[in-house]
Amino acid sequence: RPQxxxxxxxxxxxxxxAACGLCGALALLAGCRSEPPTPPAPPIALRPGELGExxxxxxxxxxxxxxxxxxxxxxxQKRGDQLVVLGLGPAGTRSFALVQEGLEVRLERSPSGPGGxxxxxxxxxxxxxxxxxxxxxxxxxxxTSGWRPTARGDxxxxxxxxxxxxxxxxxxxxxxxxxxxxxxxxAREGALPRRVxxxxxxxxxxLEVETVSYRPLR
Length: 218
Prior knowledge:
Elements: H1 13-30, E1 55-65, E2 68-79, E3 82-88, E4 94-101, E5 104-109, H2 122-133, E6 146-149, E7 156-162, E8 165-171, E9 180-185, E10 188-189, E11 192-193, E12 195-200, E13 205-216
Antiparallel strand pairs: 1-2, 1-13, 2-3, 3-4, 4-5, 6-7, 7-8, 8-9, 9-12, 10-11, 12-13
């Protein structure tokens, strides 16, 4: 089984301790750093048209990278072959838009918005979005724990049930240290998990997303 997992909330002490232990071990192996390393930009292999029904969701997001934390409201919309994440300011003004059209990715910052700073490069953020909500075993939710190929094909995923959540560890091959760990709540808001926690242990990066509303688009 993989060495680390992400905890899906403050009430998940076992999962949180496991994730923190993995991060600490990797930090010791890597040596002390004043700034965490930025993950390399991964390939984008999933098109929005492959992600199921069209929808619009409102979300609360907290991202931690090293010692810095970003918290904001967001809107996630999938329509046809376009996936858009809108970062919203305190008054609901648009701060940034992360846009995927087909396999192309771009980040649009609003000059009139409240900053629009994002913690990681656009392709890494989009890959994390795919891992958090859409990627998993190619055969769907497994009935037993174990390594399985993902639908994308260039990773494997270790999936198990823990504390009432699905815990997923993505790695380049079975038994390798996970590059991304994800915990998805079984409770759902429409087609999305109600709460997701994603971690990139080697980058000291953590993303927490709570989906507060979901509406299918016709």
